[in-house]
Amino acid sequence: MKQLFALFILIGLANSQTADLYKRPFHGEPKFDIDVLHYDINLKINDHEKSFYGKTSVEFLIKRSSVDTVRFDTETFRVTGVYDDTSSLSYYQQNGSLIIKPLSPLYKDEKRTYTIHYQSDGKVADPSDYNMGGVRVLGLGFFDESEDNPALVQTHSFPEGARHWFPSNDHPADKATSSIITTVRSDWKVLANGVLKSKTTNWKKLSNGMRIRTEGSGDSTTYNWELNLPNSTYLYVMVAGPFEVIQDYHGDIPMSYWVYPKDKKHAKHSFHRTPEIMRFFEDEYGVPYPWPKMDQITIPGIGGGAESTTATILGEKTIHDAKAEKDFPSHWLVAHEAAHQWWGDYITMQNWHHAWLNESFATYGEYLYSSFLYGEEEGKINLWKKKQSYLNEYRNRYSRPMMHPYWEYPNQNFDSHIYPRGAAVLHMLRQIVGDNKFKEFQEVFLTKYAFGNPNTNDLIDVVNEVSEKDLTWFFKQWVLSAGHPQLNIASKWKDDVLTLNVNQTQIGRKTPTKYFLPAKVAFYYKNEVIVDEILIDRKRSIHRFEMKKEPLFVRFDPDNDLLIEVDQQLSLNALLSKVKRDNVIGRMEAATELSKFLDDPKTVRTLKRIAVHDRSWFARNAALKSIGSEMSSKEFLIAYIREKHSQPRRTIISKMSAFHSEDALKLIRKYLNRDDSYIVQAEMIKQLGNIGDKSDISKIETLKKEWSPRKIIQQSATKSLLKLKDN
Predict the structure, then answer these.
(1) Torsion of Cα atoms, 583 then 584 then 585 then 589, to 10°
(2) How far is C-alpha 705 from the geometric centre of its chain's CA atoms?
(3) What whole-number distance in Å separates Cα of residue 30 and Cα of residue 26?
(4) From the CA atom positions of the chain, what is the Rg in Å?
(5) pLDDT digits (tens, 9 = 90+) for 103-113
(6) Which of 67, 378, 380, 626 has its CA 20 to 30 A from that of 161?
(7) Parallel/antiparallel/unpaired status of strands 34-46 and 51-62
(8) pTM of the model
(9) Do the beta carbons of residue 94 and residue 61 sit within 8 Å?
(10) Are the CB atoms for 327 and 21 separated by under 8 Å?
């Protein structure tokens, strides 16, 4: 699951939010009266009424010694009858539950099948009532035709949406096989979990006994999808609409990409890497793709995706043209949701507070594939950005353990503490055990708990077993505790000895007073780099290194493997060396820090050189932000013409407009239609609103009518037009 929510919460609320985390209800491991074995879901969709009729047969096994009532989760829809074979059963609906009275008590290991009839009466669930305000549908919802999407119907089952479209034991720990039979208008197609077993055209019988295929509102088609492997209810899906289907394969596994008709010409840009991604994860996890097929379908109403088993749903904004590929690629989202087919679907968390088993591995999968696709430097940038996402939540919202059994709503477990932080934690674990052992433990864990519901302790046991080490300390620090190491680092060279002082300064509830932290330290000299390993196991630690000359600078964690915050004051000369010699993250950090030393000519010369010539766009972009006020119009123009990456070009337009508005205006007017990046064009339009005049209005109005990813051109144009027309 990769939901993209914009959360703007005042920093001042951080303490109260932290306290609230521990006031939420505590959850232990689930205990059920029944174990559902199979759902036979039969739906008739009345899209013209925005309602549906349902009949679901639930086969289940009794788990307790005896039960007098059987309970299913049901919300929003109205139950009209319950049957055991041909017998009608007594029932009532109350507080989100359907309570059924068997004809006689049921005993342990007995199997029963109850058939439940129900209808929606046109009612839909309001996601905000269930702390799901970031999505437009919970359960089964209808979308009218718009400029962005055709009319369609979709389900959204995460995290407890299944109960809004079929009666169920709606919990991830109760997996069941399924058939989803859906009748819709004949010009629609239906996608659901599993394999399409049949597609039937419904004929209308005339009064003279003849049968004809009907046209118009009476015409319908029934699709029967079956998944004969156990699957959690939050992963159930049904989508129906006028989709175009593009066929592909991963070996013998059929794959399809379902898109709106208008998007078919661009679908390849979103999905063409899917077979490569599947091969990559099979190699990484050591387990072949475990399902009979793999479909992906675009829908409105979500910003990211949801890993419905064998039928991933993706927000429609993932579709983009060739020009948008550089700024709005989809491969990271496809990789995240594909990784879930193993981590989340094949094995599924035992309860919601173990959700890091799903999301941390899927988010780490994004990083792994990014490194594979683009190389090590881009991988470091990807992981750095993930750490910043977590740190933003840590600083501005709250801090909590990754496995935290205090929650009121399941989706409170799905935050930056388990997505990006979890990815960073898994990366540290990989450095400790090594690539081979890390891949081996993934294979062993996935195989041992295939189609099951492991918890955090189960994973710890497998890691210890495979690594042949007791790494429980690692999980206590990083998964069962909150926070991260905050280190104050100082170094001093004297009498051929360099002394490194490392003080841990982190505080906070559930945060370790001191971390056990294996780390590396690099010493940079003019013509060499020496790397040493140290172990930090105290609140305050001192490390001494014999060396004949003082290094240019000392780099703690030189590969940026650790999830840490470092406070280390470097001299100007050290920063000038660092910005040239360090890895991509270190060069970016040094370029940012050098903004404090712009009164020194060496700093200005160095940053100008980095801004144009550094091998990574990431460092160039940081240098441009730091040195922008010192660059001439000519230097900006040269930098713009040379720059191949869109992010630094956007910075050039922003900074040049701020410090050289007249020349920036000339550049923008000349290159606005020629730049090959939507985000640069959007920045140009934005700056026209700030520094342009009414002569720019007609050009902006023309661009406003053109398509752009996430409507960034339209949004920028709208704001600029308001400014120009007011002026």
Answers:
(1) 100
(2) 31
(3) 12
(4) 29
(5) 999 999 999 99
(6) 67
(7) antiparallel
(8) 0.95
(9) no
(10) no
What is the domain count for the chain? Answer: 4
491 and 390 within one domain:
no
Among 48-57, 204-213, 320-329, name the one with the lowest average pLDDT. 204-213
Cα atoms in the 13 Å half-sphere on the side-chain side of 373: 19
Q: Give the strands of the sheet with 517-524, arranged side by side.
A: 529-536, 517-524, 553-556
Tell me whether residue 388 is in a domain: yes
Provide the domain limits for residue 699: 631-727
Residue 431, token pair as written in the block: 């450095």
Cα–Cα dist 114/135, whole Å:
32
18 has a pLDDT exceeding 80: no
| Residue 273 sits in the same domain as residue 383 | no
DSSP 468: T
Cβ atoms of residues 498 and 551 within 8 Å: yes
Structure tokens at 512: 């370790």
The total of other beta-carbon atoms located within 10 Å of residue 241's CB is 26
- Three-state DSSP at 294 gives strand
pLDDT tens digits, 526-575? 999 999 999 999 999 999 999 999 999 999 999 999 999 999 999 999 99
d(CA 256, CA 292): 12
Q: What is the DSSP letter of 2?
A: B
d(CA 110, CA 548) in angstroms, rounded, equals 79
Whether 622 and 591 have beta carbons less than 8 Å apart is answered as yes
pLDDT band with cut points at 50, 70 and 90 for residue 215? very low
Average of pLDDT values for 369-378? 97
Q: What is the reported pLDDT for 203?
A: 72
